[in-house]
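Fold it.
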Amino acid sequence: MVLDRKVEEHAVLTDCTMDNIQNPSFEEVGRTLIKQAPRGWTVNSNTTWWGVNQGGGNEDPAATDGNFIFGVWDNNVLSASISQSVRNLPSGKYTLTVDIHASGRIAEARLGNQRLFANDLSALMREQFVTCGTGDNYPMQTLTLGFTQDSDGSPLTIGVATDGAPRQTWFKIDNFRLYAVA
């Protein structure tokens, strides 16, 4: 697997999300899940709170696809991740995206190493966004990772992880998308 830093300006993107990612926007169960992994996903988190909840309201950004979002939170500095194995992905170039939020409510206390990953490749939120926002309702932003799948059906694990925040462990995500690049 090879990291592709830039999608060519005139590249044609074909959405192949629904053929490869189960429950990309955490809508399948249709209800709040506290400390329960969404269908199709694996969660590794020892944070005080993690799960699926409705986006919007006082403490969350709005969902960008459907009504539900996934998130983690703890007042301490911990690590957390959500991931999914993608099977039978043909070789080729791909772009993986997710809408993410990790507001800097208290002098960017939550901004650490929030990242989108595909196997050992990753895209850091702090390297792609000018600002992480200033409140819990700040809109999600789209984080992008380009990569090349070297051979048909090679194992691929995708997801979001965080660690290294100055004061709190936090992210909210929605709307994973996978595009084949031609």
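The chain has a mean pLDDT of 89.
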